Amino acid sequence: MTSVRFCRDWFLLSCNKKLVAVHTKESREPFVFDCSDAEKPPKNLKDDGNSNNGSTEETGSDEVLAIAVSSSGKLVALTDDTKRLVLFECEPSWRCISTRWVVRRCVSLVFSQAEDELLVADKSGDVYSFSVVEPQAEGELKMGHLSMLLSMVVSPDDKFIITADRDEKIRVSHRRSPYNIQSFCLGHRQFVSTLHIPPSHPHWLLSGSGDGTMKLWEFESGRLLQSWDLSQLDESQSSDPDKNTAVVRIISSSDGCHVAVLCEGESTVHFFHLDQDNEQRLVPHSRLHLAHCPLDATFDPEGQLWVLLDSSDALLKIHTLRQNSWQCRTDSIELSRVSEALRPHWNTAQESTRTSRRFEHLYKMGYDNVSVYLQKKQQRLEEQQQKRVKAQTSNRNKRLKKDASA
Fold first, then answer.
1. What is the pTM of this model?
2. Which domain holds residue 258?
3. Where is the protein found, in the record's own terms (predicted)?
4. Residues 339, 379: one domain?
5. For position 279, what pLDDT does the model report?
6. Whole-angstrom distance, CA of residue 60 vs CA of residue 36
C-alpha cells in the first residue's frame, strides 16, 4: 500500500516493498528498508487459517501493507504481505529494533499514546497486542470482530480502542478490557474505511466510508454530531447516485484545526475547519483540484500539506494556507530534497501497486429479487394471453369452416 507520513522532520514513503525515510531539514543519507531483503519467516510458522493446522511455507509478496508512527515520533512500525511486523527506532538514528510475525495479514497499525504497546488489526477481524518494551515478545490476542477490520485508532488518553469494519460498524472498546464495549457509532451505509481523532479535539472522531460520507462523532457516547456527503460539496464532479466513492484518508494538521479528506479515484482534496465553539463544529473550507489523482497526503509539523501524486513528472506537491486558501508552493528546498531522494525508489515501483483501488471489492451489492419476480410474472401473463388469443382464433376458424361446409 502506498502511503506517506511525517515522523518529526523525516518524510516517510511506503511503496511496494520499501519504506523510505528522507530528512527534510538536513542533507542526510535516506534510510531505506527493503522487505524483500529482510529476515525470512521461519519454516515452522503456523497459519491459523490453514485447515490442517500444519506448518506452511509463506508465499507473501513482501509488499508493505501498513505503517504507523508513534506520537513522539521516535518509533515507526510496518507490516507486510509476508506477515512481518518490523519495529524501528528513528532517533537518534534509524535502526531496526525487532522483526516479529503476525498470524494473518494486517490492515492497520497503531501505537498506544504511552508507546508501550503496538496494536495490530488484521483482515479476519482480530486485534493483537505486541509489546514495545519487550520487542521480542510474541503478540497476544486483544479482541475480535465478526467482520474484516479496515481501520483502528487509540484515544489520546489511552482509554479506548476504536475499530471500524466492513459491516458499517464503529466500535469503541475499553483498551484494558476490550470485552467491555463503551459504545457503537452507527450510521454509515457502507464499510467504514478510515478513522481519525483530531489532536485538538480528543473526544471527537472523524470517520470515512464507502458511502462517500464523512461523519463527526462524540465517540464515548456514540452520538453523531455531523455528516457530510462529499459528492454534494464538489460541483465539478457529476452527481452519479450509482457511483461508489470511498473516503480513503482523513488527516488533520498538528493544531487540529484543518482537516483534509481524500476520496478513492478522485483528484480533489476536501478541506474542512474544526471549531469547538461553532455550532456547526465541522465547516467546509475549500477544495483543491489537482492535475493528477492523489495517492496519499500528510501534514508536516508546520501545518503544510504534502500530497503524493500518481505522476512520474510531479511526484510531490506542497500546499500551504495563505490568505484563507490552500496554495501550491514552488520554492521549497525541502520538497526538492525529498523528491530527488524518493525518485529512484518510486520509478522502480510497480505501476499496478500505486494505482490499484483498495476498496473496490468491499462494496455490498444489493439484489432486487422482487423486480425480477414481477418481470417473470408479467412475461408469464403475456405468454398466457397469447395462447388464449391463438386458441380463440383457431376455434373461430374451425366454426367458419364447419358453417361453410354445411
1. 0.84
2. 3-374
3. Nucleus
4. no
5. 65
6. 10
